[in-house]
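Task: sequence design from structure.
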């Protein structure tokens, strides 16, 4: 064991080491290849996070062949059920996905650092009995003493090695953790677990060591939340894996068939000397926390990230940190409740949260009795806490049941009338807002990505990320991660969230709909995308015109051309059009007369406008575009459904439907008065 540990960390290491070693694996070539006996070179390490699932680094998977595709690749997993190399086995695994996804196309050169988060999730291809680690629920680790583990090989002897260190800080915007230089990270330890010795939970994955000495980098396990989102109506990979993780530890905690220590047992021992300002009532016991995670895992996953955040905010008494990765599972919500303000501490906040989950609208019907079982546990656990809290929880539960029943009756009534989803228009929930501002007279832009809460909470804006001085060509790459995080926060089980792009009219030709953020598909194929004027519409009659267009019938009106020849619409002509007219512009938004026409259309109070990027061939006729749009308006009937119908057109074109090619570059300007934009602009840098 390395020197320099404190007494507390030495004891924690001694308690945790057998559990971590039993879950740590060796990654190597797939069985059946040249390494059929599992004795070939070690590529790196990994560890079981749930039954049948191994987490490692993407660069470990890429070690065995630079030209081989990472996702879908088969690898060998050497595991050690007894925690030592005297009892070992080998099983085949398949790489389910790598993070970030762009590593498939932009793989670094030899000995170069791979892009963060540099993670790979491997599915084991046959059932094996193995141990799993306990993953932290915190999105941001505490900088305390830690230990890292991995498979090392010296003089032909393989072993699982553990070393202690002190965490030195965060890197990569919180995606990575700096490991101290107390000891050297040996070859083969990449992909191994990093364990917080104070709390007894895995917080990171060993990524790299310094060339000049000890220490290195680890990836925060919270980056697992950036796994690709599921298709509408499906449970995402992250939620499935974390559900299996929690049920594994819950089952181990309840079982009396095995006398070996569990992670919950060790958490109990680590908590013996931990101070509690509330006399033992400020935190859940380790057994209570494991049970709560298991009961939450037995429920259907939440319908959206915002549903988790809202319940956590109600339980915590203040809005959670908006800079943390989006909480995607019920368990992630518990991670937002550590060290809450006010009286009662974590235990009270977590019981409030669990009460809210027990009466929540689940994305699908829970198994019979599971929500009642969660509430029964809350009520029983609260008996050791304050009496006022027990009364508060009972009132929350009763009120929540009544609210849920009322929502169900309303939904049933709407479904009977055929209006279950706001007349099949955009969902009323949150949307992702992308703003970009020209940086003075230079051809660079400041940008910001936020979450708009939507009509239910008008004016509420939650920042996601911001940046400065990006070129137009560099915007897609700069915005890839922030947009993906925004989508994770806003997408629901039923629908992909709307993307609103608030930019000056000359940028309405920005090809945002063609950007690939996640899943390899263009954004405009995955979700509705609309443009907005940063200053909104300029007419007092805009609200009435908006309502008429939403109801239809729609009338398309060419605004910047006449029989293919450019023209500039006059204010009087625009004011005299019918209230259901939608101005259509077919020329370059960044050039006249279309740029001026866009300003005139806005000033006249038109909240719905259609424009497009100019085709590659400047001699191409605009007649197919206008003809196709007229037919689309006739079939749509009303403006309410336009964002989804234009998304469907992009899907058809992406699927090589020649009848939809006319819609290439199409953009919808959508000034929804129920979705107010923030009024402030980001500060520019020094000129």
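Answer:
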């Amino acid at each position: 064991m390395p020197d320099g540990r404190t007494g507390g960390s030495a004891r924690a290491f001694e308690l945790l080491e057998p559990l971590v070693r039993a879950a740590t694996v060796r990654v190597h070539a797939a069985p059946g290849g040249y390494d059929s006996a599992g004795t070939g070179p070690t590529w790196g390490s990994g560890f079981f996070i749930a039954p049948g699932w191994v987490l490692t680094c993407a660069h470990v998977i890429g070690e065995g062949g630079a030209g081989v595709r990472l996702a879908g690749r088969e690898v060998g997993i050497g595991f050690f059920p007894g925690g030592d190399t005297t009892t070992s086995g080998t099983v085949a695994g398949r790489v389910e996905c790598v993070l970030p996804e762009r590593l498939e196309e932009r793989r670094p050169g030899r000995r170069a650092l791979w892009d963060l988060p540099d993670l790979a999730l491997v599915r084991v291809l046959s059932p094996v009995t193995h141990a799993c680690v306990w993953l932290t629920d915190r999105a941001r680790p505490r900088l305390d003493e830690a230990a890292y583990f991995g498979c090392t090989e010296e003089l032909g002897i393989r072993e699982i090695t553990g070393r202690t260190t002190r965490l030195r800080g965060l890197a990569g915007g919180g995606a990575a953790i700096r490991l101290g230089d107390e000891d050297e990270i040996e070859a083969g330890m990449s992909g191994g677990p990093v364990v917080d010795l104070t709390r007894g939970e895995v917080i990171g994955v060993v990524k790299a060591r310094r060339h000049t000495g000890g220490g290195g980098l680890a990836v925060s396990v919270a980056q697992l939340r950036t796994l690709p989102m599921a298709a509408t109506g499906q449970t995402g990979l992250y939620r499935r894996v974390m559900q299996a993780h929690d049920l594994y530890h819950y089952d181990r905690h309840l079982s009396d068939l095995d006398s070996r220590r569990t992670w919950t047992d060790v958490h109990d021992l680590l908590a013996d000397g931990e101070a509690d300002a509330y006399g033992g009532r400020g935190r859940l016991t380790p057994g209570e926390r494991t049970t709560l995670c298991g009961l939450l895992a037995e429920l259907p996953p939440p319908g959206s990230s915002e549903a988790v955040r809202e319940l956590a905010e109600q339980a915590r008494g203040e809005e959670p940190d908006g800079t943390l990765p989006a909480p995607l599972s019920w368990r992630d919500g518990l991670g937002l409740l550590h060290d809450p303000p006010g009286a009662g501490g974590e235990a009270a906040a977590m019981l409030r949260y669990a009460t809210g989950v027990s009466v929540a609208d689940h994305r699908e019907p829970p198994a019979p009795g599971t929500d009642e079982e969660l509430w029964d546990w809350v009520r029983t656990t609260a008996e050791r806490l304050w009496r006022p809290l027990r009364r508060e929880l009972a009132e929350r539960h009763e009120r929540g049941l009544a609210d849920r029943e009322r929502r169900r009756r309303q939904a049933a009534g709407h479904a009977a009338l055929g209006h279950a989803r706001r007349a099949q228009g955009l969902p009323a929930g949150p949307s992702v807002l992308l703003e970009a501002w020209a940086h003075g007279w230079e051809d660079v832009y400041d940008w910001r990505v936020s979450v708009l809460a939507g009509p239910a909470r008008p004016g509420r804006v939650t920042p996601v990320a911001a940046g400065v001085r990006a070129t137009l060509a560099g915007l897609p790459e700069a915005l890839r991660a922030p947009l993906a995080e925004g989508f994770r926060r806003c997408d629901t089980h039923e629908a992909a969230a709307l993307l609103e792009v608030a930019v000056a009219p000359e940028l309405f030709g920005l090809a945002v709909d063609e950007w690939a953020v996640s899943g390899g598909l263009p954004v405009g194929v995955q979700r509705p995308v609309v443009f907005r004027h940063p200053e909104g519409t300029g007419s007092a009659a805009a609200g009435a015109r908006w309502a008429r267009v939403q109801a239809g019938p729609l009338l398309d009106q060419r605004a910047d051309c006449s029989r293919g020849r450019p023209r500039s619409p006059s204010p009087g002509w625009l004011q005299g059009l019918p209230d259901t007219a939608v101005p259509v512009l077919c020329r370059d938004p960044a050039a006249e007369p279309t740029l001026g026409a866009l300003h005139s259309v806005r000033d006249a109070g038109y909240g719905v406008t259609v424009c497009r990027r100019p085709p590659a061939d400047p001699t191409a006729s605009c007649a197919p575009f206008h003809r196709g749009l007229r037919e689309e308006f006739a079939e749509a009937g009303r403006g309410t459904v336009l964002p989804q119908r234009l998304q469907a057109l992009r899907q058809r074109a992406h699927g090589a439907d020649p009848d939809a090619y006319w819609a290439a570059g199409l953009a919808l300007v959508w000034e929804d008065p129920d979705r107010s934009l923030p009024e402030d602009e980001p500060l520019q840098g020094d000129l």
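The longest strand covers residues 157-171.
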